[in-house]
Amino acid sequence: MNMESGIDPASYLELDEARIRRRRMMIIAGIAVVLAIVGIYVWTHKKPPAVTTDATPNVTVIVPGRHSITTQIPAVGNIGAFFSESLTTLILCRAIAGATGGGIIPLALAWIGDTTTYAERQQVVARFLTGTILGIACGQFIGGLFTDTLGWRWAFAMLAAGYLLVGALLQQELRRTARGARAGIAAVPATQRSFLSRAMAIVADRWSRIILTTVAIEGAILFGSLAFVPSALHAHFGISLTLAGGVVAGYGFGGVGYTLVARRLVDALGERGLATGGGIVMLFAFAALWLAPHWMISAAACFAIGFGFYMLHNTLQTNATQMAPTARGIAVAMFASAFFIGQSIGVALGAIVVDRLGTDWLYVIAMVLLPVIAFAFARLLATRPPHHFREPEDSAASVD
Predict the structure, then answer these.
(1) Rounded distance, CA 230 to CA 377, Å?
(2) pTM of the entire predicted model
(3) What contacts 120, CB < 8 A, 6 or more positions away?
(4) Measuring CA to CA, which residue among 83, 95, 109 is closest to residue 30?
(5) Domain limits at 46?
(6) 212 and 176, same structural domain?
(7) With contact defined as beta carbons under 8 Å apart, do 88 and 180 qualify?
(8) Burial of 241 by CB count in 10 Å (0-12 exposed, 13-18 middle, 19+ buried)?
(9) CA distance 332 to 400
């Protein structure tokens, strides 16, 4: 025993042995991931994946290989996070996983835009939202479960396995869809323009700018308010932070509630009605959150906020898929970027409001501005150019 430090030297040997075992496991896991990626690549590139038609021989309908990066690289990033031995390594691996995995939802929305007509697209996007909302809610629960049982590292191991499995299934589905490309979906000739030129063309379009600006402001106002609700409920009603977080989770359940009745609402209200209705629901929901005498009223208000938000956001998403049919992947990625950047700015500004004026002012700001944004977008829908809600008559889309 080292009398000066009080630490048994054997403990250092055990620590070194543990690190060696971990590094060996990392090498084995890395080899397994590489082999899995190579296997998926070989499997999905046995035949040329592009599908063409007689009428348009140079039109690409589906290119499965382009989607693989969004599932394979995140798997590598999460494997690295599993074996990370420092915070810096963990952050780097998570950044790699996030930067590539973040493309999954934009690509999925672009694919929906390529394989559905505009008339049916909003209902399909609403069903897609069910998976994203439930994934976010279940992910938080599963992450906590792993932390309390097997340890936080195993959450990343499960993510890596999930990415590889879902990636393989996705490639199989894309190949099946490519072989039996649906009739009646308009084809858009492939373009050879650079990424920058296509992105600039999207920004130059007036309707595209309206959609991108609206979703950025929407994300800033909503999440700039919701981010501070748990701490406000904890301070005002004296409930635990765990319960306060559960109350705000009602927002997600409200989104799921919308997806369950989306088909009926789309048929009954149309796009303008959904945007307007979403604004009205959020107005009353934030008013209830502001004036709530009990935390259970706040829970109901959060549910209503989620319901109203997705009425508006689903309409924006559907329009985003038609901003640029010849560059749908880029357009939807820009839409997602505007939404997330808006969220980040909103939380930063919300913190300033809370520090200087209090949380109640956040509720009032959201109660006023979100309906204004929703009503304005509903009005602007009437001025939308025809090519932004009608498919080209003789052109199959391609995901960038």
Answers:
(1) 30
(2) 0.69
(3) none
(4) 83
(5) 10-185
(6) no
(7) no
(8) exposed
(9) 10
- Give the confidence band of 201 by pLDDT, cuts at 50, 70, 90: confident
More confident residue, 6 or 51: 6
Gap between the Cα atoms of 393 and 186, Å rounded? 6
Q: Is 2 part of a structural domain of the chain? A: no
CB 73 within 8 A of CB 96: yes
Closest by CA to 177, choosing from 69, 45, 67, 61, is 61
Pick the more confident residue, 308 or 146: 308
Cβ atoms of 258 and 126 within 8 Å: the answer is yes
278 and 399 inside one domain: yes
pLDDT digits 0-9 by tens, 252-276: 889 888 888 888 898 889 889 999 9
Distance linking the first and last C-alpha atoms of the chain? 64
What does the pLDDT read at residue 69?
63
* Residues 272, 211 share a domain: yes
pLDDT score for 34: 53
Say what the pLDDT of residue 245 is.
79
Q: Is residue 133 part of a domain?
A: yes
For residue 4, tell me if it sits in a domain.
no
Average pLDDT over residues 18-40: 55
Token pair in block for residue 153: 């590292």
Unique residue bearing structure tokens 């379009």: 205
